[in-house]
Write a structure and sequence with these properties.
3 strands, elongated
Length: 91
């Protein structure tokens, strides 16, 4: 479907919905140039996950050896230890 900018402005959401429903691109002519609105295929599940390998500081194998015995109690309650105080001047 080919439109001008005025028609796009007046029916923007209807045009966007039509593109999503039909998959047919909308072409808009503006100042002698052609723009196209097309639906993009969304990657599924695991493909959307971005790797963050640099987020682990140190040896990842050390994570396997973390002991939780100080934090765990038989009742299932977690004992919270006090964290470092926030720097002054911040809320």
């Amino acid at each position: 479907m080919r439109l001008n900018a005025t028609r796009l402005r007046s029916d923007l959401y209807k045009i966007l919905d039509r593109v999503l429903e039909t998959g047919e691109p909308a072409e808009i002519e503006r100042r002698g140039r052609l723009l196209r609105i097309t639906p993009m295929a969304r990657p599924a599940g695991v493909e959307r996950i971005t790797p963050h390998a640099e987020r682990i500081v140190g040896d990842p194998d050390d994570l396997v050896e973390i002991g939780w015995s100080q934090e765990w109690r038989p009742s299932g309650a977690i004992v919270r230890r006090r964290r470092h105080p926030a720097p002054r001047g911040r809320s």
